[in-house]
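Input record, target 12 of the design panel.
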């Protein structure tokens, strides 16, 4: 790493880092992809040649400096190459969420004015063709997978491999132009434009420069001692800033290998085969894996189940301390070593986490029980706090200072201040350039001195200097009696239960709180199967009396925990419904990164909220839904409203100021 960092001054673009890696790590693996059950591999030298051929092909196709090139598809080396090739020719890559519906894509493609679109397969091509008449700047589309594309009109359609072939054929003619464009790239050149998830309105195009990406990658890699020998599995949406910084920023800075799974369905198998050393996942991935582990253990034999729970209890007691290098007695260490042979090691290998040296989770709060479970197994799982506008990193957790209830200390070169209203502000080398074509939003988010308002409320702990996040600043309100309303705090406690997939709390300005609950179909379905409870649909299972009683017990337990916090005891859930459908991004109820669009949910299910507050025992509702093929429909349901046990506050609530 030391040798790499000495040349940092000259490494001011991704193509420059690629050239360095092709020279220094020529025969080391840069990309792997599993296709047809076999891992394909490209070295850094081969990667540079593939990207050069594509870049020459893009120039040949007419891509000009400053053009926007949209990239849509699942994680594949070719699409990662497309982002670097676009930058090499002076264009701006704009990755989109592959599961976005056509109208969502129409907004982003129209907003940035993309002349060129690179897609993974026929499904993505069809979406673009469907909205083509709305895209006045659109000229050409390149597709990667030729299956199903033979009979399409190829006037504006081009196969990825053909573009590369044309680039190779025109090498002598165009290489001078490519070199000239690459030579212009510096720290202030645009590296990528990423669109926000749009929780409160239309997505905004966040412009990130090479300085933002490369400095953030450099600082974070040094912080966690990442080296050229790391292996990562790239499976998160390429349109998300986290994937961009891990799979491109850090990968190109360090020169480590990016592994792409065969499909979403084979991700867990591919994860086990790769055994990444550096891993990132949002909380829902860790929650889902833990749920599956617990489901499997319920089906295991009595002896195996007893051994599992026995050693797990010991790991919970000493595992975190051993991981953090804290003193632990000899007998406890020996027992933990035995547990590692019998339980922890095999379990980590089954999950694909046997080689992880550094693991991260972010995006949402993770339950302390879930977080501590993984750390107790010896997995160095940490939390970070970040945003697209920060090029990910705002705070990170140093080794030995990892806790479930904080998000760590300011990341390297990041300054943080908290205003009088409790809102967190930061500035750093990763601070975004601007929102594309939106000077008003840029000015309201980033001030003249470079300070960015995060929209999150939090505070620094005295002594430790760690940051604690309370909630989104705009979501923190007051109950009718003046006590604090912080929905995320309660929602995260509810989601710690494997049975509960999602929760949405309401109560701002009211005398009490109510909630919507989504059950986790995998966990609750397995429970129903073990108890011989038949069900025909999600809706039927969600309304089953035993399911409602189980959820009621979870809500009551959360209320007991919330009642112990004098500041937030007014946020206990008085009544709730288990919704008849999962909240879905296709229905506009969530973002593509699975964040609840609170205002939309509130408007869409207004009749259910009214019933929760007016004392009704049941409510009949009709909800519009979007099917996988894009058709609209509606589902009817009569929901049972459940009263939960509310506990008296342990200490009198803090009065309004």
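The sequence produced for target 12 reads:
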């Amino acid at each position: 790493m030391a040798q790499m960092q000495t040349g940092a001054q000259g490494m001011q673009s991704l193509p420059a880092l690629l050239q360095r890696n092709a020279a220094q790590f020529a025969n080391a693996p840069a990309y792997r992809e599993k296709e047809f059950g076999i891992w394909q591999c490209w070295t850094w030298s081969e990667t540079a040649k593939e990207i050069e051929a594509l870049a020459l092909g893009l120039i040949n196709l007419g891509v000009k400096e400053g053009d926007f090139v949209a990239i849509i598809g699942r994680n594949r080396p070719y699409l990662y190459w497309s982002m670097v090739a676009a930058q090499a020719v002076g264009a701006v890559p704009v990755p989109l969420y592959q599961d976005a519906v056509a109208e969502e894509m129409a907004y982003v493609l129209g907003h940035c004015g993309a002349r060129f679109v690179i897609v993974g397969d026929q499904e993505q091509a069809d979406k673009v063709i469907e909205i083509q008449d709305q895209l006045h700047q659109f000229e050409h589309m390149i597709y990667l997978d030729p299956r199903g594309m033979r009979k399409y009109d190829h006037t504006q359609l081009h196969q990825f491999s053909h573009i590369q072939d044309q680039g190779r054929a025109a090498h002598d003619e165009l290489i001078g132009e490519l070199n000239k464009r690459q030579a212009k790239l510096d720290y202030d050149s645009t590296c990528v434009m990423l669109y926000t998830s749009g929780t409160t309105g239309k997505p905004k195009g966040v412009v990130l420069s090479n300085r933002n990406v490369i400095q953030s990658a450099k600082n974070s890699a040094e912080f966690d001692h990442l080296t050229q020998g790391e292996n990562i599995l790239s499976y998160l949406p390429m349109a998300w800033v986290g994937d961009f910084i891990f799979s491109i920023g850090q990968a190109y800075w360090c020169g480590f290998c990016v592994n792409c799974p065969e499909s979403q369905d084979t991700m867990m198998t591919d994860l086990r085969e790769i055994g990444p050393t550096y891993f990132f996942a949002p909380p829902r991935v860790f929650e889902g894996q833990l749920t599956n582990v617990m489901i499997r253990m319920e089906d295991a034999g009595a002896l195996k189940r007893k051994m599992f729970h026995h050693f797990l209890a010991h790991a919970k007691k000493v595992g975190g301390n051993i991981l953090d290098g804290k003193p632990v007695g000899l007998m406890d260490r020996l027992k933990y070593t035995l547990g590692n042979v019998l339980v922890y090691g095999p379990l980590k290998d089954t999950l694909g986490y046997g080689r992880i040296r550094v693991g991260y989770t972010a995006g949402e709060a993770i339950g302390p029980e879930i977080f501590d479970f993984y750390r107790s197994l010896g997995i160095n799982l940490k939390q970070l706090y970040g945003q697209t506008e920060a090029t990910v990193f705002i705070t990170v957790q140093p080794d030995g200072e990892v806790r479930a209830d904080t998000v760590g200390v300011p990341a390297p070169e990041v300054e943080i201040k908290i205003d009088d209203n409790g809102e967190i502000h930061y500035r750093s080398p990763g601070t975004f350039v601007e929102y594309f074509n939106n000077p008003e939003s840029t000015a309201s988010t980033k001030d003249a001195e470079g300070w960015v308002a995060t929209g999150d409320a939090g505070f620094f702990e005295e002594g430790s200097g760690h940051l604690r996040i309370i909630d989104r600043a705009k979501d923190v309100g007051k109950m009718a009696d003046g006590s604090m309303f912080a929905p995320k705090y309660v929602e995260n406690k509810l989601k710690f239960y494997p049975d509960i997939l999602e929760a949405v709390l309401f109560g701002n300005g009211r005398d009490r709180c109510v909630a919507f609950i989504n059950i986790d179909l995998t966990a609750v379905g397995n429970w129903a199967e073990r108890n011989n409870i038949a069900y025909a649909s999600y809706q039927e299972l969600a309304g089953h009396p035993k399911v409602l009683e189980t959820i009621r017990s979870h809500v009551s337990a959360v209320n007991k925990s919330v009642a112990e916090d004098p500041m937030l005891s007014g946020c206990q859930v008085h009544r709730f419904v288990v919704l008849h459908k999962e909240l879905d991004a296709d229905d506009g109820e969530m973002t593509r990164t699975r964040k609840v669009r609170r205002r939309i949910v509130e408007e869409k299910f207004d009749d259910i909220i009214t019933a929760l507050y007016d004392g009704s025992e049941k409510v009949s509702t009709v909800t519009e839904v979007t099917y996988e093929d894009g058709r609209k429909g509606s589902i009817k349901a009569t929901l049972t409203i459940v009263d939960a046990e509310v506990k008296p506050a342990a200490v009198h609530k803090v009065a309004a100021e």
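The mean pLDDT is 91.
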